[in-house]
Amino acid sequence: MLLQVIVASTRPGRVGPVVADWFAEQAKAHGGFEVEVTDLKVLDLPFHDEPAHPMTGQYEHQHTKDWAAIVARSDAFVLVMPEYNFSFNAPLKNALDYLNREWAYKPVAFVSYGGMSGGIRAVQMLKPVVSALRMIAVNDAVPIPMVKTLVDDDGFHPTDIIAASATTVLDELAKLAPALATVRENT
Question: pLDDT digits over 52-88, tens only?
Fold first, then answer.
């Protein structure tokens, strides 16, 4: 099973990559998945520019074909995401909207961060979006409140509670990913 850890933030000064690197290491140590990290800033998708509806799978641009290949080969996702104004950020919504069938019947979990809320409001706003793509959202999450206090030049330093929540999320993804692979094979 391939777990795709997606860094959603693209702005300067972001902490998403260091949090994603930490989570990817947790996932590798967990042993339930092969792990890849995709950074939306590096992927650099323009604002959705395909003429055909994503449901058709008819992609003209190479950046869309590359993104579709990443998503299609993945069995599960973790979205490492900031909270902006009580919601998720535009680059993440754009990346989700580029595709359709490639997301279907795959589990998704959330590592969110921000101020006091730890990004949980953004996660709640995003759940209907992933549901519309026929993804299965894991109920457990890794909310990281006051993330800037946990990051320094040496990386991300989670609390024990944050680290334990990562294990819970990975356990849930490891249960769902094989079951949903069977669903995809029969669809």
Answer: 999 999 999 999 999 999 999 999 999 999 999 999 9
Distance CA 119, CA 101 (A): 27
Proportion of the chain in helix, strand, coil states, percent, rounded to 5: 45, 20, 35
Residue 74 contacts by C-beta under 8 Å, 6 or more apart in sequence?
A: 2, 3, 4, 36, 106
Q: What is the pLDDT of residues 5-19, one digit of tens each?
A: 999 999 999 999 999
Instruction: Report d(CA 148, CA 30) in Å as an integer.
Output: 26
Predicted TM-score (pTM) of the model is 0.97
From CA 28, how far away is CA 166, in angstroms rounded?
Answer: 12
The alpha helices in 13-56, defined as continuous H runs, are: 16-30, 40-43
Superfamily of domain 2-185: Flavodoxin domain (3.40.50.360)
Count CB neighbours of 164 within 10 A. 12
The owner of tokens 């409140």 is: 145
Taking the C-alpha atoms of residue 10 and residue 58, their distance in angstroms, rounded to an integer, is 27
- pLDDT tens, 35-55? 999 999 999 999 999 999 999
| 108 touches 135 (CB < 8 A) | yes
The full set of domain ranges for the chain reads: 2-185
